[in-house]
Amino acid sequence: MSTLISGLPGRPPRIGIVNLMPHAEQYENWLMPQLSLAQPFELQWIRISSRRYHLDDPDRIAATYRTYEEATADAPLDGLIVSGAAVEHLPFEEVRFMDELNDMVQDVHAQGSPILGLCWGAMGVGHLLYGLPKDIYSAKISGMYETELLAQDGPVASALDDRFWSTHSRFAGFDDKALDASTTVRALARADGAGTVIAESYDHSVLMHTGHPEYYGSRLAEEYHRDVDQQVAGVRAPVGVDLDQPLRLWRSHSLAFFASWVRLVADQSAAR
């Protein structure tokens, strides 16, 4: 599967997406439209070999997804995206697929290819590569938050507005004090009530977004009603969201964010 556009010279970069979300196909339908402004790339959907994907059609998963070893058998990946996962309430050492994910992340990082983590994927990547701890919250951070850009240099930060909306749905986040003490990672954007939204390595090769820029407009309201029905503890109405008429105010940020990251992947691939 790819987003190739005919008539463009050169080989498009190969980007792998490790999809850890509970409903794999649903997540594909959220993420791909947000990549619509990105330049062409060859897409490889990556699966965790130990995961059953029992909420999806197994025949479709088998046809669409490959293990990391299969995806890189003929050529390495030029970039890697790690999605969110419904495990943010667990300590990292209790996440059963952590070792397999670590092998992928370390391999791509050793090659010098860019890595992007989203929501839990941001925290997981930060932990695996830089030992960054996370804070687990008693109450869920959910809602749409006005977010401040802290630095304007770099291939992604330079494409973002000074202030933008970001959307969050998580029970954990970066330990901001530990992140600020790091000599390898910096915070790019933060929001009152949501903490660090975007962090990156100083060499720009690793990008971590703790929000869900891929969400569609009514998703936060739907999640809130779902959590209330399931009597999930620590759930509050999403900040800044009209539950009856929710608006998506983060789409421009999402499109610019993903397009600039894919451009970084393509530029680094072309330079090798």
Automatic annotation (TrEMBL):
Gene3D superfamilies xrefs: 3.40.50.880
Catalytic activity: L-homoserine + acetyl-CoA = O-acetyl-L-homoserine + CoA
InterPro entries: Class_I_gatase-like, MetA_family
Sites marked Important for acyl-CoA specificity: 88
Taxonomy, superkingdom: Bacteria
Annotated pathway: Amino-acid biosynthesis; L-methionine biosynthesis via de novo pathway; O-acetyl-L-homoserine from L-homoserine: step 1/1
Keyword annotations: Acyltransferase, Amino-acid biosynthesis, Cytoplasm, Methionine biosynthesis, Transferase
Keyword Transferase among UniProt keywords: yes
Compartments reported by the entry: Cytoplasm
Family to which this protein belongs: Belongs to the MetA family.
Protein name per the record: Homoserine O-acetyltransferase
Species, as recorded: Streptomyces yangpuensis
Organism lineage string: Bacteria, Bacillati, Actinomycetota, Actinomycetes, Kitasatosporales
